[in-house]
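Researcher: Structure prediction, please.
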Amino acid sequence: MPEKRKNTTPIDPTYGHLQPQALDIERAVLGALMIDSDAFSMISELLRPETFYEPRNQKIYHAIQTLSMDQKPVDIMTVTEQLRKEGTLEEVGGPAYIMELSSHVASSAHIEYHAHILTQKYTARQLITYSSQIQTSAFDETVDVDELMQSAESGLFELSQKNMRQDYTQIDPVIQQAVEIIQKAQSNTSGITGVSTGYTDLDDKTSGWQDSDLVIIAGRPAMGKTAFALSLAKNIAVDQKIPTAFFSLEMSNVQLVNRLLSNVCEISGKKILNGQLDDEEWKRLDRNLHSLMGSPLYVDDTPGMGIFELRTKARRLVREKGVKVIMIDYLQLMNANGTRFGSRQEEVSTISRSLKGLAKELNIPILALSQLNRTVDNREGLEGKRPQLSDLRESGAIEQDADMVIFVHRPEYYHIYNDDHGNDLRGMAQIIIAKHRKGATGDVLLNFRGEFTRFQNPEDSYIGSLSNGGEIMMSKGSQDDALPPPPTSDVPF
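Model: Predicted structure follows.
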């Protein structure tokens, strides 16, 4: 007889798999709910009708849920009557099935444990369905892979949020944590409890950037908000050596570093761009590079970054690099890929809400730059040009989600050179704290040097470098001798 050939066809390992389910536990949970009036309150946050695998069990739980929400008793008779009212009694197997559910359960002692099992099974089913959809789309050559990745991450994030349960906490450990923070603040004579901004008056009003806060830094174009953000990044990452991430959706990494070099080395941005440095400026550049090299500043210039991609990168930076501050330039250039919106306002609202959630999750401050609408330019006078919360562009949700809203405002840009008190505003910028959930609002005056993309304390003298590697202090002089406004072409966004 000829030798029988062996079947070499590979066996699909997924063939014959059953959906994750626990029908006995589903019936036990439903039975327990009908014999214990307090049972529903223990599992109401965990279970939804779709958590149950068997369709008739879904309908029965929906009836129990409706009765409980209406504050009506839940037992065999009321559930049967509710199902009859909904027209689904016969679909679930009639009164006999309802009787059967409760007859095999003695108590509701383990209902929470059983409910957790059901939620795990339900989550596993969701993951299987979602991964199948992603797999199908991945085989479709007409689907853009980058968009598919964004959509996949978006879907997983939504899935995790839907199945996340934040439990309550008894107040005692929270009180202890608050007292420890107060004690730590007492030992800090500077009064700064967060990350220092590097600006004396701003630190005095804010006590530094606080953990879990979303800070919006807003302004019209040419006000210098990017220069302000870079000055903050320099103060935090370069001077204080605190790990900082800077997401630049508008400029490339090289453009960003060029502005940082101008800030640190006091060389005009124009000369940095065209390379026309004199001998002294080349020496200054060479001497000051060491302060930037090795700084814990991480830059990312991915254009059109989505909020879900930002989340992934931010988590990795915090985990791997110990990042303590995240900065984003700027919010309106982000998108929420993978989700459809009726308007751009809805999308921006989702982005701002997600940024606040990310700040809270990572427990670090997130600083996001934002544009203002054109209504500022159309108003007249000193107060008219002053930004307002209503000027935030595209979404009032930004104001609602933010813990702090700061405006960068330079009156001299509008040819306003004195404030109401006669103070000279030439070469000055107003940092307006318009919203502060944890403290006071008000204005802080800083020197603005547009040619160096730098903001600095008014009391600081301008610092230049000597050829021998030391520093020379150049007196700023009186307020009346303040620098003239920088050329418009050198003013950063």
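Model: The CA atoms of residues 376 and 385 lie 5 Å apart.
Researcher: Thanks, that helps.
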